[in-house]
Amino acid sequence: MYKLRAREERGKTVTDFFKSAHSFSFAQYFDPFNMGFSDLRVINDDIIAPSGNLGEQTIANMEIITIILDGALQYKFSNEKTQLLTEGQIQVINTGSGVTFNRFNPSPVNNTHLLQIWILPSKKNYAPSFQTKNFPRERLLNRIRMIVSGSGGDGSLKIRQDAEIFQSVLEADKTVYFSIPENRKLWLQVAKGAIEVNSNILESGDGMSIVNETGEIEINGVEADSNFLIFNLRNLTI
Fold first, then answer.
1. In the chain, what are the domain boundaries?
2. pTM, 2 dp
3. Distance between CA 2 and CA 22 in Å, rounded?
4. Among candidates 191, 190, 36, 44, which has minimal Cα distance to 103?
5. In sequence order, which residues have a C-beta less than 8 Å from that of residue 237 and are 6 or more positions away?
6. Residues 154-189: pLDDT tens digits?
7. CATH architecture for segment(s) 2-234
8. Collapsing DSSP states into helix, strand and coil, what is residue 140?
């Protein structure tokens, strides 16, 4: 079964310097029919205005994946360490027993556009860890590449869960295929551009769950540089 989660249906958080669209229930947005999908709990599509500061947060027992789509994001951690993420970089924070940080847009003129993803870990209260890796456009172009996994294989960033995230940047009129694994759930999320999935057009912000299907997914590029993710998740009921 293919089920669309249209971008217009997502929850919203809007402030003077921050806009976020939530695919699943998050913060003040609550939707009992969209609490998560398997171990995937959060896909937030965030835009931070120039010099926007999101304030301090403490998060425990969550695998946090940040994908920078445009601009830059500055992290400042409670131990005074800092990290600057730029376009094409992906960060994983294995929060474990807890991590405190602040995030802000360091640019006085440009927006920052990012996806923040939360996945439940397979165990709790482990020692926190951090990883960052650059996945430039040419490594993702017209192919599907694993960027995050429980194994850390194929050059991916490692999380503490039986889950995989794949990413692709697809040019218009190009086609890629993804084999549906047995007894798994898939979630497809369009980050930028537009793609065609089995005759369905998905645009930036659209998501799609894929459950109890076999064979291959055919994905065609509709717009230039269409950026999308595929999540391969455990076949849980949520």
1. 2-234
2. 0.96
3. 20
4. 44
5. none
6. 999 999 999 999 999 999 999 999 999 999 999 999
7. Sandwich (2.60)
8. helix
